[in-house]
Amino acid sequence: AWRTYQRGRHLWHVGERPMGLAVIGSGYVKVVQPGPTGKTAICAIVGKGDVLGDLALLSHAPSRVETVFLTDGCVAMIPAATIESMAAQEASLALALATATGEKVMALYDAIDALAAGRVDERMATELLKLDARFGGTLDDGTRRVPVPLQRHEIAELTATTPETATRIMVHWQNDNVVSTDEDGFTLIDVEALRR
After folding, report:
1. Lowest-pLDDT range of 22-26, 64-68, 106-110, 157-161
2. How many angstroms separate the CA atoms of 137 and 82, rounded?
3. What is the dihedral of CA 7, 169, 121, 46, to 10 degrees?
4. How far is CA 22 from CA 13, 55, 88, 145, in A?
5. What is the 3-state secondary structure (H, E, C) of the chain?
6. What is the pTM of this model?
7. Side by side, which strands form the sheet with 10-12?
8. Torsion angle of alpha carbons 156, 161, 162, 167, nearest 10°?
9. Residue of 136, 170, 135 lying closest to 152 (CA atoms)
10. Which region holds residue 60: left if phi is over 0, alpha if psi is between -120 and 50, else beta?
11. What distances in angstroms separate CA 73 from CA 31, 105, 122, one per listed residue?
12. 64, 74, 89, 179: least CB-packed within 10 angstroms?
């Protein structure tokens, strides 16, 4: 059964064990890793069709991340016992779970590499382009619309910078007609400028 969530609601918090696999039916969810100093990092943003909870399920450990809805949305939760029983009987399911988990780990390695290299504006451009590739669509005027609402502090958490720096860069891009933002997401006006 689908359960609805409002923007800002958590699927689970750090230290909790997810009750199973959460399949996103609609909306966008950020996966957040709190740091020891109180700073947080957004590890991923997921949407319709994505699955959360597999890392905790396979490791039989509490979650090291929290999951927070960026928009209203819905989730189907497949109980852990059901998944474990099915995986024990069907090797292809176990292999699919292991493969999906491996892909997530590789994506985290890629994110670490991206954060360690380049200037902040390059990291921000890369992350906006990644979100566009996953969730964006072309508008009639040729611009690209990404319906993922991110506040400045979330852009900072996604790119390992301060909210002030993220704001400065976003304002610069808005003044140069590269990107525009609103409460429902952002529009990439000049994709080529972001790719440079």
Report:
1. 106-110
2. 36
3. 10
4. 14, 11, 19, 26
5. CEEEECCCCEEECCCCCCCEEEEEEECCEEEEEECCCCCEEEEEEECCCCEECHHHHHHCCCCCCEEEECCCEEEEEEEHHHHHHHHHHCHHHHHHHHHHHHHHHHHHHHHHHHHHCCCHHHHHHHHHHHHHHHHCEECCCCCEEECCCCCHHHHHHHHCCCHHHHHHHHHHHHHCCCEEEECCEEEECCHHHHHC
6. 0.86
7. 10-12, 66-69, 29-34, 40-46
8. -60
9. 170
10. left
11. 15, 25, 31
12. 89
Bridge partners of 3, per DSSP, are 75
Closest among 50, 46, 49, 43 to 14, alpha carbons compared = 43
- The dihedral over CA atoms of 59, 82, 75, 57, expressed in degrees to the nearest 10, equals 0
Q: Which of 34, 36, 37, 18 is nearest to 77 (CA)?
A: 18
Share of the chain above pLDDT 90, in %: 65
Reply yes or no on whether the pLDDT at 187 is more than 80. yes
Q: Which amino acid is at 160?
A: A
pLDDT tens across 91-149, in order?
Answer: 887 778 778 778 877 777 776 766 666 789 999 999 999 999 999 999 999 999 999 99
Q: Tokens at residue 45, please? A: 């943003």
